[in-house]
Amino acid sequence: MPRSDLLQVMRKSSAKRKSAAAASRAGDDESARGRLLSAATHLFCKDGINATGIDAIINEAGTAKTTLYKLFGSKTHLVHAVLESEGKQWREWFIGAIEAGGGDAEKKLSRIFPALKSWFSEERFYGCPFINAVAEHDKDQKQFRNIAMKHKKVVLAHIEKLATEMGAAEPEVLAHQLALLIDGAIVAAMVSRNPGVADMAGLAACSLFGPAKVKKPKRAASAPAELVAV
Amino acid sequence: MPRSDLLQVMRKSSAKRKSAAAASRAGDDESARGRLLSAATHLFCKDGINATGIDAIINEAGTAKTTLYKLFGSKTHLVHAVLESEGKQWREWFIGAIEAGGGDAEKKLSRIFPALKSWFSEERFYGCPFINAVAEHDKDQKQFRNIAMKHKKVVLAHIEKLATEMGAAEPEVLAHQLALLIDGAIVAAMVSRNPGVADMAGLAACSLFGPAKVKKPKRAASAPAELVAV
DNA sequence: TGGAGGATACCGAACGGTCTGTTTTCTGCA
DNA sequence: TGCAGAAAACAGACCGTTCGGTATCCTCCA
């Protein structure tokens, strides 16, 4: 009783300055839908989808169970909504991070792994939600694998465009190789919790750009202490 | 009734020519323990650990629930036994695959990604059990992350040894970069079910060996059709 | 004949999901 | 502007199922 009253008060006071119009971004959406979406995103990513119960989600969101089922219909639909929303936000962030600041295509590509490093350094970094979703479901079914591939194709397409602009001999090959390094870094960072793997991946990426173009970025991997952690 | 009778008969007739001594490899162990271990391995890897119930395991193993709990004590202990056994088997296979056939260190390293490709091509390839286990559990707890890191460190140590023998300028760096490519390829193969990602990773590895040493292996990635699939 | 393994009933807890009923918040009209 | 009614969100009991795990009894064969 007192606890829910407190929550209620907090919600009201902070929701006051928001209009009733449905916010499109889930990041700071104070509506029930937004709170459910971000609570589910957090718990699914942190603890896994199967290990997260409905009750845990509604507790963190501060909503009733009826609200969840009215808005999303089922846990399965909620999972899909979370992946869609999270994927969109991540791609916007990622592309923004490498495009912002301008420069030529090679400069933009060189921003990939520093951007990933800052992601890996977040307190709430739990790996790639798409990879994790595939990992904990039936791998003979296409459901989650298709969703993950759709996400990865969008990212790959952007990288390939930059690789083409850069004048790479084989942009498609380079883009796929960078994508492999990105996935490898994400997984290694999830397991080791060492954001430094991004530096290692970035260094490897330099080698891929071609011998002529290697301008080593201050050799960030000069600290061997970090290397042992993976 | 008839179904379990059939199982019983099959089990007996094939178990006849095995001694009662506990087999060390789980691969073709017909004992109750071996059958439970390989059934649990299959289901954990295919469907995920949390999504696999005890009943599904004992059904596939053809044992009683009591037997499982007598031999392993709990589902948690079974999970650990599976990871330990599977990790050991995988490392023996992997190191065997790149060492067998001899040659110098560089030749051995160049066998990494062809070996992975044959793994990816197996019907029952479901990704790396350690990565998957981390992905579906609480990422703020160290339990599974430590187990995964222990496994990966053994593999990394072997690669680093070969990189040193090869005369690489920075064997430690090269080994970590190869490890990133390996993880990236495993994840990409799990999501896309396209073993061809191993060729792409192998090509990237050649770039890492240093410009002077690149002897492109017949350019396996000349089939662009495969590239689109990731 | 004794011990390993099989079958099965059962337990409490937690699961996803539904239902009833109350309170809060928005909206439209006098 | 104020108030009635609609709509939304809340609280939480409840349902059937499945979960991990236990207990009991039975079968088989060395």
Describe this structure in words.
2 copies of one chain form a homodimer. The first copy, chain A, is mainly alpha-helical and 230 residues long. Chain A has 2 domains: 25-83, Arc Repressor Mutant, subunit A; 104-215, no CATH class. In chain A, 67% of the residues lie in helices and 0% in strands. The first copy, chain A, is built from 12 helices and no strands. Chain A has helices at 2-15, 32-47, 54-61, 65-72, 75-99, 105-109, 112-120, 129-135, 143-166, 171-192, 197-208, 224-227. The first copy, chain A, is elongated and about 55 Å long. The N and C termini of chain A lie far apart (47 Å). The model of chain A is unreliable at 1-27 and 212-230 (pLDDT under 50). Chains A and B meet through helix 2, helix 8, helix 9, helix 10 and helix 11 of A and helix 2, helix 8, helix 9, helix 10 and helix 11 of B. Chain A binds a DNA duplex (30 and 30 nucleotides) through helix 1 and helix 4.
Oligomer kind? homodimer
Spans where pLDDT lies below 50 across 5 or more residues of chain A: 1-27, 212-230
- Strand tally of chain A is 0
Q: What gyration radius of chain A follows from the Cα positions, in whole Å?
A: 20 Å
| Most residues in contact: chain pair | A-B, 54 and 54 residues
